[in-house]
Amino acid sequence: MIRILANDGIHPDGQLLLEEANYEVDTNKIPQEDLMEKLQDYDAIIVRSATKVRKELIDACPRLKMIARAGVGLDNIDVDYAREKGIKVINTPKASSLAVAELVLGQIFSLSRYLYQANRSMPETGNSEFKQLKKRYAKGLQVSGRKLGIIGFGRIGQELARLAMGIGMEVLATDLEERKVKVYIQPPAVENASLAVELQTVPMERLLEESDFISIHVPSGKDLITAKEMGRMKKGACIINTSRGGVISEKDLLEALDSGQLAGAALDVFDNEPTPSAAILQHPLISATPHIGASTLEAQRYIGLEIADAFIDFFGE
Ligand SMILES: NC(=O)C1=CN([C@@H]2O[C@H](COP(=O)(O)OP(=O)(O)OC[C@H]3O[C@@H](n4cnc5c(N)ncnc54)[C@H](O)[C@@H]3O)[C@@H](O)[C@H]2O)C=CC1
Ligand SMILES: O=C(O)C(=O)COP(=O)(O)O
């Protein structure tokens, strides 16, 4: 029997598919430091971003035939090394794109209307402070008509463009290569109706200078956005990062927020996950979430089902 360790969990529907195909699926989390010994008893491992599958672990587990990333980013897996050793490595590139794009849209609304700040203040508000808070948060921005800059115009970036144009935002996108992409805006209430808009990528400099909100959707990379790029951004713009920690310099971000160059930031990913710096988490102008971009019931279900299908394709029923 094929034994699979789903070390960061798997949606029950994916697990059921695998079990119906006679696979044994173990969802009891094994701490990273014990994996070297315990993973030796399994044919495959399924991980999210928490478990790291590095060279040493791969070397210690000769029975391992498949590593599945239940999600997109493969930065926690030594992919090339695993493949050199004949181990199949897969991920689920599309299943969570909409979930991430929806989180970004939520953060755009949260930043533009101070929702994250108001939520922090309201529980301690008595009669007298209510009016003060009403005044403090009275200068919200209308999102419709504002410019959204999308850095990294792949699956998530395009999904976000579609949602943002649907609420009347103007979209600018940039990517490593020039690209012209058709984005289909579908008003949910109108069946079979969609409006195709062709979006041509622009140089990064233009995007930085013109956007009111900037959202980053590149795979990874160190310091893509530093003081230099933040200095080019419109004064009072907001930045959102759901890609990977390190892509934005956290130190430079804190300075840009403190100086008033940027008005706010929303972060789902951090340097030093799972223990981001207190300066970031406690900053009054940062709306932080604990790496939940892919964490909707729907996305995790699609991921689980896609992973199960991939296993059955690879190992057979
Ligand atoms: N917060 C979360 O829970 C999640 C985060 N992610 C992150 O989002 C990333 C993006 O996902 P997808 O859109 O599916 O990837 P994708 O591969 O479809 O798109 C990435 C795009 O970024 C572009 N790119 C790469 N480097 C760039 C640079 N320096 N400047 C401009 N463009 C650049 C690529 O050419 C590509 O078009 C993932 O790699 C992952 O790290 C993905 C899912 C969930
Ligand atoms: O899929 C990705 O790249 C993500 O960052 C999602 O991470 P997670 O599976 O939620 O730990």
TrEMBL record:
Domain D-isomer specific 2-hydroxyacid dehydrogenase catalytic per the UniProt entry, residue ranges: 7-315
EC number: 1.1.1.95
D-isomer specific 2-hydroxyacid dehydrogenase NAD-binding domain ranges (all copies): 106-293
InterPro entries for this protein: D-iso_2-hydroxyacid_DH_PdxB (IPR050418), D-isomer_2_OHA_DH_cat_dom (IPR006139), D-isomer_DH_CS1 (IPR029752), D-isomer_DH_NAD-bd (IPR006140), NAD(P)-bd_dom_sf (IPR036291)
Name the UniProt record assigns to this protein: D-3-phosphoglycerate dehydrogenase
Keyword check for Methyltransferase: no
Biological source species: Saprospira grandis (strain Lewin)
Alphabetized Pfam families for the sequence: 2-Hacid_dh (PF00389), 2-Hacid_dh_C (PF02826)
Enzyme kind, highest EC tier: oxidoreductase
Classification of source organism: Bacteria, Pseudomonadati, Bacteroidota, Saprospiria, Saprospirales
Keywords: NAD, Oxidoreductase
CDD domains: PGDH_2 (cd05303)
Annotated GO MF terms: NAD binding; phosphoglycerate dehydrogenase activity
Family: Belongs to the D-isomer specific 2-hydroxyacid dehydrogenase family.
